Records
---
Amino acid sequence: MPETVNDRLLHESVAHSINLSRYSTGAVRRMIALLNATDERLTAELARALAQVEPSSFAIGRLESLIGSARLVNAEAYRTVFGAIPDEMRILADYETTYQRELLAGLLPGDVTARFDLFRITPDQAYAAAISAPFQGGLLRDWAASAEANRLKAMQDAIRSGFVEGRTTGQIIQDIRGTKAKGYRDGRLEGSRRGLEAIVRTALSHTAATAREQVYEANDDIIKAVRWVATLDLRTSSPCRLRDGLRYSADKAHKPIGHKVPWLAGPGRLHFNCRSVSSPVTKSFREL
């Protein structure tokens, strides 16, 4: 049986999901590098502050004033990182809107594209929609504030427990930053890197999903549905496995077609680090 346009769109969407994952991995590395750039300065400020305190006179109430300089370094680091993430989102919005339109233009028969204009979504439109819409319950600026606060709390907890357990300043700093022998992955700051990775990957998958959906909605005279495409491996979540291959209406309602499984946030947004994507399903010649 010959391959249909929708079969080819599905295959291209699967291959495209791999490229999106690679781009996301590169962006994560760039953002973590920005965060890591302040680690040495951050821990130096903490060490300088802790060296001025006698363990016997340490009071929890003094902790806020004690690490004031470290708090400023931490805030500066997150301003830099979350100032760069929108640039990554804008680049991806540009790429994704162009890719989706060219994919349709390249696979649809000439007599279809001659009769139906493919509407173009500008990168600015896709970016504006993505940056103004929440993902996983918050806007990007909300996640920035949360990430900064969580990293500061991890340091505060390390200091509290360190003084209670009678550790030296060097031991407390090592607990916070980790050891060079293990690439500093064994310190409490590693948790902030994992958290940042989840935010970056989810922000980018949210951006790509927004761009795709805008292209689909703008061309609803040709596209009648979207198909959920999940990456099926050992890391695929059960909610995504459940939805793989299911169809939904191409409008904002995303009503289930032929099943009752709800769309919820959609592919790429269903949960943190969601790798699912969507594939357009075109109308038949008869429907057109």
Note: The first strand starts at residue 223 and ends at 229.
---
Amino acid sequence: LAWRFREEAQLHGAWSVVYLVSSDALPLCVDLVLTLIKLGEEARVPLAGFSLDGGGSRKTLRRRCRELEKLGARFAVVEIPDVPAWLPQLRRISDAWLTAKRTREKAFSLGRFDEAYLMNFPLAVVCVGDRPVAFANVWQGADAEELSIDLMRYTPDAPHGVMDYLIVELMNWGRDHGYRWFNLGM
């Protein structure tokens, strides 16, 4: 299959590219005469003992989360059956985010705002007062092995550090629901 992929790419004048290659697949990539480029490391946080308590290494995150809570930020996970009701508000957040970043949707290594896609996942949402200001869709691995996020968006006027808060709170939620790892990606 890998050789067929490489041959088809060549037939069409394209490059064959493989993303997120495991160490087990490296010999195959060498056999395919692909150039290996290390882009980074996958960051996985063990959730069993995860906490922001104690220690100076998490002091900045701890402070940022407390500041957001003082501003009235609250975190919630919206379960799949309730996602459709949230989509109009989240579309406004996404559109504002794209405008502020002067970009358009991408879909290679990150998710994109697609209602049909988002209705397949729970959503992590941060509200300030009664207004949602940030969200991410939640990927849940089988058997509570791993938790991760794909599409992340926030309003231009969201409090500083809102995505840090969302991720920390989702990690706490994952720990409390028996997940072993939180995958931060590359």
Note: The mean pLDDT is 92.
---
Amino acid sequence: IEKTEAVVAQLKKRLSDGISPTNLSVYVRCPLQFYLQYVLKIEEPQLKETGIGLNQMGSVLHQTLELLYQDKIGLRLTPEHLKTMRQKAETILLQCFREAFPDVMLEQGRNKITFTVSLQFIHNFLDKELLGLKDNSLIIISLEEKLTALINTPEGEVLLKGTADRIDEWNQHQRIIDYKTGKVDIADIKIDDFNDFLHPKKAKGLQLILYNLMFLLQNPNVYLIPVS
């Protein structure tokens, strides 16, 4: 894309209006997609689907986890908390699917598979959390936390903004957690030098470090453990 004055003006406006870790991870993976989607604001055509898409499933899983944990904010989680949450998981997941897709049949076909897989994701997450409590302390600090940071650059001010899925305290160290429904390897979030931030395979690591940056600028005395 030729960087005409008009294009540069659009880019600067986007940066000053606010840009999220997700937006920047799209840029790292595909600059053209970033330009079309976030600068020109061209929307992808809405294809009529007979089932629930993977991105839609991810949104429902996020909402389900938020509802499961929302009354645990400020509490030190116990095994009993996690066991109760596991018992409620199917009901809450079904509620979230019904709200998101009121006209979709979940009792048959591909949608039933999607629901079953989603429930397994939730159960696996809670089981891993329960296992971790054996020798550790966990306190939920906040969910869906809005974060912002104003960064001065030679090209002007850039407003970073985003929503951290969860912030908690793990053995007296705070963590920022970014939920992912797809596979994430440690190599995807391990950053060895600055150039790694521009590598498409490190986009998830870039997202995490930007959430860390925003949080630490707002809370400079906190030690963080980034988690994806």
Note: The longest strand covers residues 138-153.
---
Amino acid sequence: FEQGHATAAKPGDVHANVFVSSGRALPEHEIKVVNEAGETLPEREVGRLLFRGPSTTAGYYRNEEATAALLRGEGFLDSGDLAYIADGELFIAGRLKDLIIRGGRNLVAAEIEEAASEAEGVRKGCVAAFGIVEPRSGSEQVVIVAETKATATEERDAIERRVIEKVTNAIGAP
């Protein structure tokens, strides 16, 4: 969904992201996916997931500022999720806070972590990816922290090169 649009994967596409349907809204609840301006997006367009209904919180206890950041007009709550709707069903595509914006591209931290975990020498499940804003460009630098049992400098340097190669291949950019 890099370009903000979810399309069906072609058969055999091993690089396709797979998203599982979360189903439809519960009775008496509403869901919608909106852009940054709060406008409802058409099907298969990725945006912020908003919902409202009997289970929606009234806000944070004694924290009006946090409550204001959470609630949107007409009683909708911003879930903090990136999502899209296809054939009336909801698909969660990630967390807004897990999005790294680099050079105008939306990169999902979990995808970067998965790719880095495939590098020989990296401990499985022991990878974190995040972005740090580069003040001059306004873009984010991708940072990857990966655990290894390796202690020799040469060995760690080789693991670093493998991580960079795996992530570059996965996201299609250095």
Note: The helical segments are 64-70, 109-117, 153-171.
